[in-house]
Amino acid sequence: MFTMEITRLIERCRRGDADALGELYKAYAQKMRGVCRRYINDEQTVEDVLHDAFVIIFTSFDRLRDVGRAEAWMTAITRNVASMCKDHLEALPMVCFCLFY
Length: 101
Known about the structure:
By secondary structure, the chain is an all-alpha fold. The protein has one domain (3-91): Rna Polymerase Sigma Factor, Chain: A, CATH 1.10.1740. It has four helices and no strands. Helix 3 crosses helix 4. The chain is elongated, with a radius of gyration of 17 Å.
C-alpha cells in the first residue's frame, strides 16, 4: 500500500470506521500471517495468533505515533504476540497419551 493510502486508512480506523478496519485486515493479514508462521507451525494456532494481533492493532491506534511506520508497527505487534504464544507453548509440559489394551 502507498503511504498516502495507509495514512487515510489509519485515520479512518482511528475514527472507528468498521469498513476501514476490514480493509486494513485484507491489506495486511497475509503478511502478518507470514510473521506468525515464523514462530508457530500449527495453522490453527497461527490463525488464533493473527486474530489476537489484529485485536491489539485495532484497539491501539492511539499508540501509533508515525502513520508512515504503520506496517512496521503492526509487524512488531504481531511478532510480539507470536513470540509470546511460542514461549507459552514451549513452556507447557509434553503429554503423551498411550493406549494399552
